[in-house]
Write a structure and sequence with these properties.
- There is one protein chain.
- The chain is α+β, with helices and mostly antiparallel strands and 293 residues long.
- The protein has two domains: 2-152 and 275-284, Ribosomal Protein S5, domain 2; 161-269, GHMP kinase, C-terminal domain (Alpha-Beta Plaits), CATH 3.30.70.
- 41% of the residues lie in helices and 23% in strands.
- The chain has eight helices and twelve strands.
- The protein has helices at 60-72, 94-109, 116-131, 137-144, 173-186, 188-210, 214-230, 236-247, and strands spanning 2-12, 23-38, 42-46, 49-51, 78-84, 147-150, 154-155, 162-166, 252-254, 262-265, 270-272, 280-282.
- Strands 1, 2, 3, 4, 5, 6, 7 and 12 form an eight-stranded mixed sheet that branches. It has a four-stranded antiparallel sheet with strand order 9-10-8-11.
- Strand 3 (42-46) and strand 4 form a beta hairpin.
């Protein structure tokens, strides 16, 4: 059985959302596809190679997804094959997408009867298993799709267009989340006001998106990026790329954990569709998974 789930962009609220602040997030058109077949043992096949259950390597999210699923419905084996349009370590929710798609495919193949809500909560648990701390936003958006204001979980619509630019650097979510957490522990009087400011930006940003106020979104992007830089999750390379984008009349900021990955822009770069469908079951024949067997 094949399931797919979308990646995501965080428009506003990176890192601050981990501490209960507001975030504005959207699913994107790039998806991760996972095929699950019953088997006598566990085998995971992806662009990273073939492994059995691997809780510390490139297949950690898939392995923990299988572990969490097995706590609900005991299974003795499964072949899991992954094809993804979402670049890994990109800040675009590739880990959440493969987790949600894996859980959904397992659910369908083994007829466990899990709801979308069940899938979301399991996926959030997997995020915490791997990262140690997680907001669950990536898993939420990958499960349900759409444009959302968090924590209210309120949908919104916007006609504004966005673009993505690859920084050429890898973004490791767990590393960046731990970095900000350590900074917050060591300097709470400095970091807490930054997170509060990000909260205000997300609230104002949601309002501006709903009325399609591009001018205000550009201003908020610039302020938000400055705060992300203050948290230490930008890089000199990202700063240079954003400066070049600014010179062309656009605004840009990190999307996701930072340290690398993709940069979200107000229309420059690869155009993306936002707010699309969440997790779904696919037609096996459409994706030719026999090529990977």
């Amino acid at each position: 059985m094949i399931a797919s789930a979308p990646g995501k962009v965080i428009i506003f609220g990176e890192h601050s959302v981990v501490y209960g602040k507001h975030a504005v997030v959207s699913s994107i058109g790039w998806r991760c596809y996972v095929n699950v077949e019953r088997s006598s043992d566990f085998l995971i096949i992806s662009q990273f190679g073939k492994t059995k259950l691997d809780f510390t390597g490139k297949h950690s999210y898939i392995s923990y997804a299988i572990k969490r699923f097995s706590e609900i419905k005991k299974i003795s084996g499964a072949k899991v094959i992954v094809k993804s349009e979402i670049p890994p370590d990109s800040g675009l929710g590739s880990s959440a997408a493969v987790t949600v798609a894996t859980l959904s495919a397992l659910n369908a193949e083994f007829e466990a009867g899990l709801s979308e809500e069940d899938i979301f909560f399991l996926a959030k648990s997997v995020e915490i298993d791997v990262q140690g701390i997680a907001s669950g936003v990536d898993s939420f958006v990958s499960t349900y799709g759409g444009n959302w204001i968090i924590p209210e979980k309120r949908r919104f619509k916007t006609s504004l267009e966005f673009g993505l630019v690859d920084s050429g650097e890898k973004s490791v979510t767990s590393k960046m989340v731990r970095k900000v957490a350590e900074l917050k522990r060591n300097h709470p009087d400095i970091v807490d006001p930054i997170l509060d400011a990000m909260d205000c930006i997300a609230v104002e940003g949601a309002k501006s998106l709903e009325i399609n106020d591009l001018s205000e979104i550009k201003k908020l992007f610039r302020i938000n990026q400055s705060l992300l830089r203050a948290l230490g999750v930008s890089t000199s390379n990202i700063d240079r790329i954003i400066a070049d984008i600014e010179e062309k009349g656009f605004a840009a900021k990190i999307t996701g954990a930072g340290g690398g990955g993709y940069i979200l822009t107000t229309g420059y770069g690869d155009k993306i569709s936002i707010g699309g469908e969440g997790v779904r079951i696919e037609d096996t024949e459409d994706w030719g998974f026999s090529d990977n067997r």
